[in-house]
Amino acid sequence: MSTSPLKNWQDSWQETGRHSRPEPTKQVKVKVQKKKWITTGEKFIYTVFSAVVVGALYFSVSFSNTTDALNRDVQQLEQRVESQQELNQNLEYKKQELSNPDRILEIAKKNGLKIQNTKVKQATQISE
Hints:
Helices cover 68% and strands 0% of the residues.
């Protein structure tokens, strides 16, 4: 039991010593770093990915525009070919109509040409 009064005396002495001499408390300023939502590397990756996507979209739109222009040109050419074929068929029909031997004989008689008992044959062209 002799230790108990010593402990009490030691505790009381420490308490009085603390009160008599105040210890300076150090206040440390802690910088709290906010966690970034997106890191710098992720920003770079997203930027590159976005640039690639925008480039691909631009290429796609450009390609479809070029394809559309070519399709329109092809359609216009097809229409011109069809109209030219139709015109050629009409001219071929007129050529056959004008080369009728009866018509040629009528024109010859009107202009004073006399044909005596001969047969009129249609001349054919020799292809070279």
